Amino acid sequence: MIVISSFQEFEQQVGNDLGVSSWHTITQEQINKFADATLDHQWIHTDPERAKTESPFKSTIAHGYLTLSLIPHLWKEIVKIENLKMEINYGIENLRFAQPVLVDNEVRLKVKLTSLLNLRGTTKSTMAIELEIKDQRKPAFTGEVVFLYHFIG
């Protein structure tokens, strides 16, 4: 795990692969809870029996936005940002869902720091991300996330 405590330390990582998270298993329980939270109960996510017979995947699949919502959790396994007043999710750019994540698939986040800007004391970081699916050639998604960090001092 990389530990970053200042803009200067962060700046040294521009262009670097920052690492990968541990594997996270997507369970049916997690999919169902996400469906409840988002009111998206489409059968392809929540009905395992119907998915076995009617889905081209022969299984339920995770919501695309569920996989996106894992970014903050998995990101914190890769880099620890210290000395902060505040951290803000600012945006997602060039996002492409490449492949569905089936129930019980394992996923992990891969991150590269592509740019860092100091905006009058606010650090704007842009990171290329990829959510890998274990034993699959294509990722679940690729894109860029933008976070804002306000370091103390």
Automatic annotation (TrEMBL):
Record organism: Mucilaginibacter rubeus
Transmembrane stretches, start-end: none
Pfam families (alphabetical): MaoC_dehydratas (PF01575)
Domain of life: Bacteria
Protein name, per record: MaoC family dehydratase
PANTHER family: MAOC-LIKE DEHYDRATASE DOMAIN-CONTAINING PROTEIN
Any coiled-coil regions, as ranges: none
Residue ranges annotated for the MaoC-like domain, each copy included: 10-122
InterPro entries recorded: HotDog_dom_sf, MaoC-like_dom, NodN-like
